[in-house]
Amino acid sequence: MTVDILLIGGLWLDGSAWDEVVPALEALGHHAVPLTLPGQGDGSTTATLDDQVAAVLAAVDAAPGKPLVVGHSAACTLAWLAADARPDKVAKVALIGGFPTSDGKPYADFFELVDGVMPFPGWEPFEGPDSADLDEDARRSFTAAAIPVPAGVAKGVVHYADQHRSTVPVLLVCPEFTPAQAREWIASGDVPELAAAKQLDLVDIDSGHWPMLTKPVELARLLVEG
């Protein structure tokens, strides 16, 4: 099989977050590789953002063709950094429930650090549309499996280098927000990286922030057909 889809989970997730998406993509005739990033599944608490970027680029370089690079939530920035570093190697970038961080901004400095890591903060910050489709069992499983994010990742500063990243096609999958809302945010200047994108498609999915857990088959179809 040809490696053609790379899957990057957001904060606190390792490659197992895509366990139900991978077979759905394979059923559609594609081969997907879920990534477990340094500091998010390999036991390291000292990994940096540069380490995670290097891992993503290694996967891009190892693909025999031009892969679709999929980023979820905060990892939308990692997918976009791959487009920045390899604009001629990445066929397309899919962003699920998030947007690329602007140049010069911290990668994911969202929650309190404890002993050098950013643990999952619990469900209070995600009450409402983000988590409405997760039942209590799903929440307990997520919390138990959540991997604290190293400070060197969360506070790493994002830097882009190649304006040709704007030529890489982008698919924005909108879960807890609508395509109309996303267009408003982009038009207002809140998402400058996507405002500069030459080809941007937006698709809706009726889910919360983690559609790989709650709508894996529909998500797989959107990634392939969107």
Automatic annotation (TrEMBL):
Pfam families with a match to the protein in the record: Abhydrolase_6
Protein name, entry field: Alpha/beta hydrolase
A Gene Ontology molecular function term of the record: hydrolase activity
Keyword set includes Hydrolase: yes
SUPFAM superfamilies: alpha/beta-Hydrolases
Source taxon at top rank: Bacteria
Residue stretches making up the AB hydrolase-1 domain: 5-221
PANTHER family: HYDROLASE ALPHA/BETA FOLD FAMILY, PEROXISOMAL MEMBRANE PROTEIN LPX1
Phylogenetic placement of the source organism: Bacteria, Bacillati, Actinomycetota, Actinomycetes, Pseudonocardiales
Keyword field: Hydrolase
